[in-house]
Amino acid sequence: MSENYFDRIRNVYAKLNSMFFKYENEVLGALMATLSRENYLLVGPPGTAKTTLVYALSKLLNAKWFYRQLTKFTDLEEILGPINIAKLLDGKVERIYANSIVESEFALLDEIFNASSAILNTLLSILNERVVYDGEKVVPVRTWTVFGASNRIPDEEELQALYDRFPLRVFTEWVSPDDTEPLIIKGWELRMDLERMEPLATMDDVQAVNKIITQYVYDHIKDISKIISPIIANYVEHIPISNRTRVKVPMYVATYLMLHGIDIGRAELTPSLLRVGTIKVLRYLVNNKDQLNEYTSFATVHMPEDLLRLSELLSEAKALINNEVYDEARQRIRDAKELLNQIRSKWDAVMVKLYTDEINELEDLLKKLEEALSESRR
């Protein structure tokens, strides 16, 4: 039954979120890439758990994974496997592909943009076609998802084609100094979790979900496109997205909604869900870290009306408190509390879940403003 596939994958998603500290975007992107059979790039400084995330995901899915840190001196044998010496003595040039990228289901290529031109040319066919051109042979690779990790975005012209083969991207950072204590605690819990972690799903589940979602998107592409295309068109006026990536957005949106509780093919993807899913997915399609601010502004403008109104009420209350106009500030806060209660009680459960971060953030601001008002009475 398809719901079992969905449930098991969502269990993997929940487990990863519980294991890592403030890594929700990275985890979500990894699962979206996996379910879409897409390539995923993690950009950030060393020591931000990029490798650990892919390792944990492979263990939870019982997937065979391949890891290499790439340099200018990495040769093809380290990626594709060594030449078979026994065959070579017989005059045949063949590789031993066991334990190479060819036989892996997940591949993590660390510092991918530091690789030599020979490696980069080989990677392009793996990323795009899931094959290796090895001499005169075309060798299919088992690799389902390729993860790239880097501490930089390439500015070299010759690397742009490779960069575009990673349409889903996330920009990781070290946590703030104030978060050091919970980071240390969660880090030690993660170390222990990794040692005793058992699979919660399989690659068969991943492939089954991928097949269901792909078929659903194909069957409903005209209806889906009618809803999401205006949002994407508006977005690309600010942040460019290649034609190749735009075509894939419906798949990303469907996988995003599936991870948040929608059983694709059994529950209807309503226009409101498709709009929210599209807006949320677009954060993974930025070209660089600086564009995240533009994405945030875009997402804020496209929030549901109730959330926009709640944000406005709280901004007005804050300004009134700063200007010591306390009676009017109290009225704004009362209106905000009433609206927040309406959102929590009247909104569809899935919509509340999709906007959990925004709702919690506004609720935290509301509490701080209430505390400021209490201080003003003393």
TrEMBL record:
One of its GO terms (molecular function) is ATP binding. Residues 326-375 form a coiled coil. The keyword Coiled coil applies. Keywords: Coiled coil. This is ATPase associated with various cellular activities AAA_5. It comes from Vulcanisaeta distributa (strain DSM 14429 / JCM 11212 / NBRC 100878 / IC-017). Residues 36-176 form the AAA+ ATPase domain. Pfam families: bpMoxR.
